Amino acid sequence: MQFKLPELGEGVHEGELVKWRVKQGDSVKYDQPLCEVMTDKATVEIPSAFEGKVATLHAKEGEVVKVGQLLLSFEGAAKAAEAPAAHVAAPQVARAPAPTAQAAHVAAPTTIAPAAAKSAASQPAPEPSIATRVLAAPSTRRLARETGVDLAGVEGSGPHGRVLREDVERWVSGAGAVGVPAARPAYPSGGEERIPIRGLRKKIAEKMRLSKDRAAHFTYVEEADATELVRLRTLAREIGGKSGVKVTYLPFVMKAMVAALRRYPMLNSTVDDERGEIVVKRDYNIGLSIQTEDGLTAPVIKDVAQKSILELAGEIQQVVERARARRLTREDFEGGSITLTNAGSIGGLFATPVINYPEVAIMGFNKISRKPVVVEVDGKEQVAIRDWTYFSISLDHRVVDGAVAAEFMKLFIRYIENPGLLLLESF
């Protein structure tokens, strides 16, 4: 009997077969994940509509498969109901530069070249079925190989027991399990490792190349005294904590972005290159870049202007959790008008983020640090310790001129330095 690729969603006709979750000879139950398919919007798990044994796999990892195409043959009983719907499993790269799949590889939705097909066919045999397989990203598996760690013996702290890089590092240091000696690191020397560019990584590469090819990038950087923002966020964090909401700086930054975008609406737009039009958005839907084990993704926080700081904080918290647990849906990526990327938790002074095409702007929020600066108190200059940060915004010069970018940032920084002014805005 035959199992064909089911419908993947409205307007989606094909996707890349990122990874098989079964192999020839495996016994399969109803609704057991058979494979992962990457579409333009998300990576979806294709569930089984039959119970029986896998006879033959008819598609290779890395191959673009179309809806209705034969995926595998099986021996057993097909489900009596309609064809199964694909379950959304992981976010699509938005992306810019902005949510964990078993494979951090993606392939472009084009016909695979013969050489690529030959390479895919020469890949190692699929790993054990999902029932016995250790959940871990390829980078984590590579670290485990390099350090001589058996992932089967490592307790995963990630979603659904996923083994994270930190879990392997703790194991190597001897803190991984009580009474179990740590494996001695065995870092290889010489040689090389070739990793196919597939899945999410391939989609990121495509989006970044498209953005660089189409948009005329330039970046404007401005510094800000974030002392008042830090104070307000500290108070908001205490209030939010009482109801289980983790309040970060991001809701305040988003509100400041909206306040400034209202005065400079061209930054809240997209470019329709096919029709030669600039599409100015009247809603403020901000994409948020989130780093996952599979790569960067940017789901959209919608209607930012209509939500309070605590509402935004709660929604951001939920979106981040869903992104890292691979539970984002196609709708999470729709309607974005501008993107915010935040590397402050990692560090760095500032960066030059890549526009999330076809948007025309992406704001970069960087670390906040304490530093001595010259301030004016009662008409006199003096040195004081302040909370300081930098914001960098990349723009499409086809739409936004440098002077407009400077004026926008000047107003935006005013709201960052005086967050109380946001109360005067008629959101």
Give an overview of the whole structure:
The chain is an alpha+beta fold. It contains 8 helices and 20 strands. The strands form 5 sheets. Strands 10, 13, 16, 17, 18, 19 and 20 form a 7-stranded mixed β-sheet that branches. Helix 6 (250-263) packs across helix 7 (309-324). The longest helix has 16 residues, at 199-214.
Q: What keyword list fits this structure?
A:
427 residues; alpha+beta; five-stranded antiparallel sheet
Number of helices: 8
Radius of gyration of CA atoms, rounded to a whole number: 24 Å
Output the helix-strand order. EEEEEEEEEHHHHEHHEEEEEEHEEEEH
The largest sheet is: 7 strands, mixed
Arithmetic mean of pLDDT: 82
What percent strand?
A: 25-35%
Tell me roughly what share of residues is in helical segments. Answer: 10-25%
Distance between the amino and carboxyl termini: 58 Å
Low-pLDDT parts are: 81-133, 177-183
- The count of strands amounts to 20
User: Which word captures the global form?
Assistant: globular
What structural class is derived from the secondary structure elements?
A: alpha+beta
Topology (elements, then pairings):
Elements: E1 2-4, E2 14-20, E3 27-28, E4 33-38, E5 42-47, E6 50-57, E7 64-66, E8 70-78, E9 87-91, H1 114-121, H2 138-147, H3 165-173, H4 199-214, E10 217-225, H5 227-241, H6 250-263, E11 269-272, E12 277-280, E13 286-288, E14 290-292, E15 295-297, E16 300-301, H7 309-324, E17 338-342, E18 361-365, E19 369-377, E20 380-396, H8 402-417
Parallel strand pairs: 13-17, 17-18
Antiparallel strand pairs: 1-8, 2-4, 2-7, 3-6, 4-5, 5-9, 6-8, 10-20, 11-12, 13-16, 14-15, 18-20, 19-20
